[in-house]
Amino acid sequence: MAGWNVRDIPDQRGRAAVVTGANSGIGYVTARELARRGARVVLACRSETRAGAAVERLAAEVPHADVRFAPLDLADLSSVREFATAYPREHGRLDLLIDNAGVMALPQGRTADGFETQFGVNHLGHFALTGLLMPLLLATPGARVVSVSSVLHVLGTVDLHDLNTERPYRRWIAYGRSKTANLLFVHELARRLAAAGSDVVAAAAHPGYAATDLMSAGPRMEGRRGKELFMAVGSRFVALSAQAGAVPTLYAATAPGVRPDSFTGPSALSRRGTPVRAARARWTLDDRAARLLWEASERLTGVTYDALPA
After folding, report:
1. Strand segments (E) across the chain
2. SS3 helix, strand, coil % of the chain, rounded to 5?
3. What pLDDT, in 10s, does the model give residues 13-54?
4. Rounded to 5 degrees, what are φ and ψ at 157?
5. Active-site residue identified among 87, 175, 251, 305
6. Is 175 annotated as catalytic?
7. What structural domains does the chain harbor?
8. Which of 47, 143, 170, 291 could form a disulfide with 137 if both were Cys (CB 3.0 to 4.6 A apart)?
């Protein structure tokens, strides 16, 4: 792992990848570098306009890239189902599923299905997407699922009695819980894949403090221009670049020997995102909490992982 960077990404020719939220930031860099190595990449995004611009930009940066857009709104489970139904017909295989898209510290809101927005988008949408695509992943030798979490998962463990963070709603706690949910999901998914004898690897990564649009989205939604500007300045002068923030995700997705349920992040001293084993809160390795969250997620989304043993 020492010194690993995007130049070390193995040849991806013949492989197919889906990257959620790939129109900007870490998702865009992830998609671009996979395409640069020859992967066929689907940018799964909510906005067709922004995704179309990203496809054009990516094609200009990587002329040989095989990239395309497919609509996916993780805040609407009907959109998740439509994407998962269309993808196998159009592509036939799936080697890499990068569950990257997310929202951060938003004002209290609800998804189309009535879930608290951060829990619904960051966890439940990806839980449903991964489950619906699992038959394709299981049929593809060497497939991987990478969930992008955050160091801020330490802000709180999942409250199984208040999954929608209603008592009371605190935006940063809700965000931390959703990122803990990402790690508990990977923990349980890795266990179930092992029990099924599958070689699919489920792993997690985080970008550290990277310069993306996430930090300013909440203030922008509330019209707090001063706070939005403060976040933008902080991202410019303190944060890692999106290029560096994507390196741990790319490592988890492509490096040889990545272990199931591993958690990779950037070295604290690296401005290039050099990947290292990341610290994680002890509650993200709680077998019982992972199982109960999984069962609750199946009930809430209506998506079950029938190919994997409970």
Report:
1. 16-20, 40-45, 66-71, 96-99, 144-148, 201-205, 263-266, 275-277
2. 50, 15, 40
3. 999 999 999 999 999 999 999 999 999 999 999 999 999 999
4. -85, 165
5. 175
6. yes
7. 12-301 (3.40.50.720)
8. 143
